[in-house]
Amino acid sequence: MGEYSIGDAIKSMVSKSNLRNGVRAVQIEEVWESVMGKTIAKYTEKLKIINHTLFITTHVGPLKNELVYQKPQIIQRINEAFGEKVISQVVID
Fold first, then answer.
1. Could you tell me which residues are beta bridge partners of residue 48?
2. H-helix or E-strand spanning residue 55
3. CB within 10 Å: which end of the chain, N or C, has fewer?
4. Model's pTM, two decimal places?
5. CA 77 vs CA 10, 22, 53, 64, 87: distances in Å
6. Taking the chain, what is the end-to-end CA distance rounded to the nearest angstrom?
7. Is 92 in contact with 67 (CB distance < 8 Å)?
8. How, if at all, do strands 46-50 and 89-92 pair?
């Protein structure tokens, strides 16, 4: 039996369980401001990731329009921040 660090064991457990989506949900909120900026972060009320789709909720009309045009950049920035392909679609509500 090989030796594993606690960190490796936790990563393995999370990747094999349903906890991964919950962990990603917390992580997306942590990186959102650094990825998109303080102003956008201030006016986005809710973020969630379900099946590689990022759902963004905002009630600010002009921001919704801006986010629609930035979908490819949002996908690229989020995936770069995580170092892996976490999202492939963005839905703005």
1. 55
2. strand 53-57
3. N
4. 0.74
5. 26, 20, 14, 18, 10
6. 49
7. yes
8. unpaired
Contact between 48 and 27 under an 8 Å Cβ cutoff? The reply is no
Please identify which residue in the block is written with the tokens 């921040």: 81
Provide the residue type at 28 as one letter: I
Of the candidates 46, 32, 43, 15, the residue with the CA atom closest to the CA atom of residue 77: 32
Candidates 3.30.420, 3.30.300, 1.10.3470, 1.10.1040; correct CATH number of 18-92?
3.30.300
